[in-house]
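Thread title: Can someone regenerate the structure for this chain?

I was given the following input by a collaborator and told the matching structure tokens would be attached. They weren't. Posting the sequence so someone can regenerate them.
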Amino acid sequence: MRFGNTLNQFEELFSEIENGLKNLYHDARLGVAAHSLRAVSPNDINHLASMFKKIPFHLHVSEQEKEVKDIQVAYGAKPVEWLLKNADINSRWCLIHATHMTNWETQALANSGAVAGLCPITEANLGDGIFNGRKFLEADGSFGVGSDSNVNISLAEELRTLEYSQRLLHKERNMMVNGIGSIGESLYLGAASGGAKALGRPCGTISVGRLADLVAIDSSDPSLCALSNNQLLDGFTFAAKDNVITDLWSSGRHQVRDGRHIAEEYIKNLYRKTVSDLRSRLN
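Best answer:
Regenerated them for you:
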């Protein structure tokens, strides 16, 4: 929900999508995204949160400094602070970006159980700023990663950019890990766990009762072949390209085979047609 949408319009849209969900796989999930405190009023945000109490709730927050200042002027508090004090923020919430937070906001958000939905490539591309990652991790905060602007869709690049941003900010190495351990493993498994929570999806770990969301990595690739199994996620995060991912399963469905999505050509052709149609309308 954002800007011109009314609550009634949004509820109708939600109902239509909910009905359509019946035609998808059993593990499909539906959530609510109230764009931001800039685009949706506080009353509407709380109304939506109370109406949809058991599903994921996503909200863009504190991405840019001007946004933070505007919200502080309008509502008397910074965006994350306002939400923590005026909404029932808990583990079903995912606050996208959360770039500009005070130390108090960082600690309180971590304590709430909500997920910080980070988009490091987009945040770097737009010059938004750097997430308070080290303190958030020290407070046992949950995070996931996403692409947002889609300027470059790459899991490894998102994780790499997140870690490098912390190194540049603090002028230290090995930032996104608590104690001594593998940075790649901490980033990858942290994002998998937080992403699963943000989606309300029983996945994120390989264990009994969890969905079989799996990836296969080509450990014979030149960027990885010198590494042990314990170093593989470090190599994937900091040295490899996306083409080392050979296969992917979503809830056991084999969606990527030998490096290609099973519907890749169909998707590409449909995308090209859609872009062509849009350009024709603009011209």
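The chain has two domains: 1-201, 209-282.
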